Fold this protein.
Amino acid sequence: MKKQIIFIILLIGLVAGNFNAHAQSMGQAGTITGTVADPSGGVVPGAKVEIKNFMTGYDRTETSDASGNFRFLDVPPNNYHLQVVAKGFQTFQQDLNVRTSVPIHLNVQLRLAAESTTVDVHSDNESMIENVPTAHTDVDSSVFSKLPTTSPGSGVSDAITLATPGVVADSNGFFHPIGDHAQTGFSVDNQPITDQQSKLFSTSLPLNAFQSMEVIAGAPPAEYGDKTSLVVNAITRSGVGAKKPFGSLSLNYGSFGTYGENFSFGFGNLKAGNFLVADTVRSGRYLDTPEFSPLHGKGNGETVFDRIDYEPTAHDFFHLNLFFARSWFQTPNTFDQQASGQDQRQQIRSFNLAPGYVHIFGTSATLTVSPFFRHDEVQYFPSLDSAADLPATIRQTRFLSNLGIKADIAYVHGIHNLKVGAQLQHTFLSENFRLGITDPTFNPICLNVDGHPVVDPQFTNPRQCAGAGFTVNPGLSLGLIPFDLSRKGSLFGFLDHTDVKEEAFYVQDSITWGGANIQAGLRGDIYRGLSAASSIEPRIGLSYLFKPTGTVLRLAYSRFFETPYNENLILSSATGAGGLATNVFGAFGVTPLEPGRRNQFNAGFQQAVGKHVTVDASYIWKYTDNAYDFDTLFSTPVAFPIAWRKSKIDGLSVRVNLAEIKGFSAFTVLGHTRSRFFGPEIGGLIFNSPINSFVFRIDHDQVLQQTTNFRYQYKKNGPWVSFIWRYDSGLVAGSVPDLDTAFSLTADQQAAIGLFCANTFATVTGPLTGCPSGLVAGATRLRIPASGTESDDTNPPRIAPRHLFDVGFGIDNLFHTDRPRFTLRLTAVNITNRVALYNFLSTFSGTHFVTPRGYTAELGIVW
């Protein structure tokens, strides 16, 4: 890696000279600077300068200083309408397109108010739509700060799921981006983060640390690699330019004993700034549970984020993000596990250090260098009495650390917006895992004449069955017998560590030519871990703007190189085909999880309807060789990466957005996804249920998902009310292909799916063993195919459709004061208390109910 580091140092060494420019924001955020002058060229101090995006709600205002200068930092990539107002002058208006890290400088010359000519450099539609080939959604803090959080510690995931089309909600803050599972990459102030951000694996940044998010669901530029089904380009809040110290403190309390505190504080000047966030949460339903009523579901989390900015000269900018988080939570129990006294828990510690440096060359180029270090430590604890753990006792300690650097040069000239860069990353993995089967009925050796498991611990070999008058269990997993503690076995143990080295180089250019925008890029990736591979990835996109109709058409092709998940990668690469139950260590070094390759095609359009409505629609086709997912261990949060031979995914995503009209705003997002996976599969610890080795619909597949949000706010800081309608047609639930399988489930499992025969329903103590001919049988929370019609590809079983409704009410200035002002917020989720499932007995996710009806009250102070 020494040569690559030398390359980066030489790149930084190119920084030289003294240029008359202003330093700017990190990463993809833009900077807008300018000078306000009168007709004679004299400066105009005290002018009010405002930039606004009508669709996202982004709105910022600055005042020109004594020299007539103004500056906006950390401007998210988007279109903006700029307006300059000064007493005695006509209003100046102009539309801007911020799509580069190179600062945009404006010379604003105002006309006297007595003159008849107005300066109005904008169109009705142009500031509402974006002429870019990427399919994406822009979400500002003014929107996501008022969205409800359905699961503690999952604010970022909830905001992405509720506001982004084609993203399907799953349990515990997981979501499926356009038919994939957890294939999401984050870029936070130019720091790439592609490891899992769910609260089961790590801890994401607190939502109140973000200023905005650009969520790219199609044709991301070449600088983005690895996990690319969804790319979240996030910009955090800063204290630079703060005229006074600012901040907030809020206290909240809600259902299930959920309460917490959110604190933020910022201060700064034109040269430096600091912004700090400290949040806590405690809940009796920290994770989504396998029962509608939470059992053994307590958890808590604490996060601290600090952003420090410093601008020593007009052309240099230093930046530092610090983040620390800790969480502790119980693994929710089923009724059976609760009765046995199971007490499994998990603790996570996360730390992140991300400095950054920006240098400006003249007026057309910038150099950005972003080193980073991220560390996650996960510990999973069994019950003190291992016999209480059902069906297995589990212990785990693992470490995941990323050390890397990203550097690029951005250059803007004429019709070109060019970027050339490199990224180096070294990942350190360490895994210590222990497992023992404790339930004698989980993997019985023999079955009696009635087909019931023989639990006598003396039966440890299938050859013993016939002599005792029993039959061999046809579903027996031979590989698990040595680790069956109920049959005098011993704990399975695994301890290992490895390094993963990744290098990437990219070049991309966005060319604007009349109404056309051409995005051309090339990326090269080199991966060296338990397996080794490399790839060259061309990416090309075209969009065209028809100004008279306010229409943008998009078309793109992308090639991606997808690396294996790092979480529990070593053990998954050691188990081989069929998982632990089939081959214990026999395939180590022979079938490690390897990088995948994807061809992706995108087509779509964006249409402005009048002055307030936009419609954005995209269709996507994804063809992947070596497609990834996770294998969840029973109902625990412990999961292992697996790889399938290939996948074919296609889907439609639509977003309709209504800009604010006299306080009223709304948006609707919807998606339709077909997600087909092809065996065989390797890796993981799959022994929950057999997996079809042929084509099947995976549990990311959903016919229709939609979220509609309505909001009304009276004046800027007045009372507001919101209403959210969420609909999911149901994910695939492949573990119950027919009614015969449903009647063979345990009583608790039957009660979970709402199994019935005529007017008789299964209960946790009263299972149903069948249903007489002529009576109607089924399940209220599963859609089970009719007898003989089930097909893993064309007619799989699914979770039943569900409609969920959330409402919110708030006042942003309770006592009508200036500084400080007090806020009040009341939120209710799932107000009809709909009993519904996310998933059921999924090898990939387990069993989880959606959040029952819950209320939250929050009181805050803002200064």
Observations:
- Residues 365 and 411 are 4 Å apart (CA to CA).
- Helices lie at 2-13, 141-144, 155-163, 335-340, 569-575, 739-743, 747-753.
